[in-house]
């Protein structure tokens, strides 16, 4: 690939549409999900390289059925670990709960759309269409109950589900403690379904088009899910939460590690331009700058070899792609 200015800044398309340039293929890690499914080489999990000691930490968490708490700087590969585990152990699609300051345990377990249910009931009454199952006075409540990622992970199954709880340090102060009871019991109640006269209700899950029967409003796992929690190290956690986790600190990366990561994504390289990018990136890390490995991959993908022959433009692009991230 050579550097091509597809966008020229004029805002005016060519008069002849045949002259419209065809955009370049995306980097391997930015291919659409459907394309990745048909080409495993484009899956970031297949190119991940575990840090020293991480394999032992993962196995300890698997043996003890405890969550794995990964701490480290942004871009150190924390979120890819769960996909690596799920692919190798054939645990299915990874469930993802991204934490913000507004995240609550209830949202991760399930959501109940009471207003939607009332609206559907009123429409049914207006159209005079009774329910065929004998519950003419009730609508199908299961259509208005949506299990969240944690709730779906706790459904009974032959093999455990894989769940990523991303950036747990961004949460409200009480959320880690709120998680403890659910993770210890491996189950929770949905009061709206527990009060319903029907004993078994099909509720929607976090999987696309997924549904699962909930008996008497209670969800109970038969296998504890494989859970990876990530933290950027921006806060401390309560001791009761920490003692229920297997903890692992992502180690600082070396030049050999960076070279291996780049080679895994983009193939082995021998050009001096890529080697210089790796060295410059490592210097930023050692100087305390907050930069992520995916920034290095972006820079190498665009600037390796002689793809950008203009030195000033090359330096400008490098500075733009490897800007510091503050504290993340």
Structure description:
The protein is of the alpha/beta class. The protein is built from 13 helices and eleven strands. The strands form four sheets. A five-stranded parallel beta sheet has the order 2-5-10-1-11. A two-stranded antiparallel ribbon has the order 3-4. The chain is globular, with a radius of gyration of 25 Å. The protein has two domains: 61-111 and 144-249, Rossmann fold (3-Layer(aba) Sandwich); 253-328. The two termini are 31 Å apart. Helices cover 37% and strands 14% of the residues. The model is unreliable at 36-42 (pLDDT under 50).
Sum up the structure in keywords.
328 residues, alpha/beta, 2 domains, five-stranded parallel beta sheet, 13 helices, 11 strands, globular
CATH architecture of the largest domain: 3-Layer(aba) Sandwich
Please give the count of helices. Answer: 13
Element-by-element helix/strand order: HHEHEHEHEHEHEHEEEEHEHHHH
User: Main sheet?
Assistant: 5 strands, parallel
Structural class: alpha/beta
Q: Tell how many strands the DSSP assignment holds.
A: 11
CATH superfamily of the largest domain: P-loop containing nucleotide triphosphate hydrolases
Q: What value does the Rg take, in angstroms?
A: 25 Å
Counting structural domains, the number is 2
Q: Separation of termini?
A: 31 Å
User: What is the general shape?
Assistant: globular
Please list the strands of the largest sheet in the order they lie side by side.
2-5-10-1-11
pLDDT under 50 segments (min length 5)? Answer: 36-42
What is the CATH topology of the largest domain? Rossmann fold
Strand portion: 5-15%
Oligomeric grouping of the chains: single chain
